[in-house]
């Protein structure tokens, strides 16, 4: 799930750049997505640090997009980031419990 979320975040950053020439969206999307890809790689190697990294990045993204979702309901990107972030965090928490 972390890799899928990472791909979505990178794609969202690129779309934000193309639609509104937002360098901040591009930079934040690529960095956040790369960290989520790194998390997925580390998880595949059995590293607890990968799961922690994935949770931290997911929670930070949810913290950024959650308030925006409350102010103005937009499916893309606000709702999707919050939902995918939540699913990622829940998945990673359950991986700790196994």
Report on the structure:
This protein starts with a helix and ends with a helix. The chain is 90% helix and 0% strand. With 98 residues, the chain is mainly α. Helix 1 runs antiparallel to helix 4 and helix 3 runs antiparallel to helix 4.
Topology diagram in text:
Blueprint: H1 2-20, H2 23-44, H3 48-71, H4 75-97
Helix pairs in contact: 1-2, 1-4, 2-3, 3-4
Descriptive key words:
mainly alpha; 98 residues
Strand content: under 5%
Percent range for helical residues?
Answer: over 70%
> What kind of assembly state do the chains in view correspond to?
single chain
Main β sheet profile: none
- Radius of gyration, Cα only, in angstroms? 13 Å
Low-confidence stretches: none
Rounded mean pLDDT score = 92
Helix and strand element order: HHHH
Total count of helical runs of at least 4 residues? 4
Label the overall shape. globular
Structural class: mainly alpha
Count the beta strands.
Answer: 0
Q: How far apart lie the N and C ends?
A: 16 Å
Produce a short descriptive summary:
With 98 residues, the protein is mainly alpha-helical. It has helices at 2-20, 23-44, 48-71, 75-97. It is globular, with a radius of gyration of 13 Å.
């Amino acid at each position: 799930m972390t890799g899928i979320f990472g791909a979505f975040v990178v794609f969202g950053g690129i779309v934000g750049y193309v639609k509104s020439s937002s360098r901040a969206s591009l930079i934040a999307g690529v960095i956040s997505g790369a960290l989520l890809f790194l998390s997925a790689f580390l998880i595949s190697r059995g590293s607890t640090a990968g799961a922690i990294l994935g949770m931290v990045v997911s929670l930070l993204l949810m913290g950024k997009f959650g308030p925006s979702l409350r102010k103005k309901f937009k499916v893309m990107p606000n709702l999707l980031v919050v939902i995918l972030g939540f699913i990622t965090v829940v998945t990673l928490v359950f991986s700790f419990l196994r």
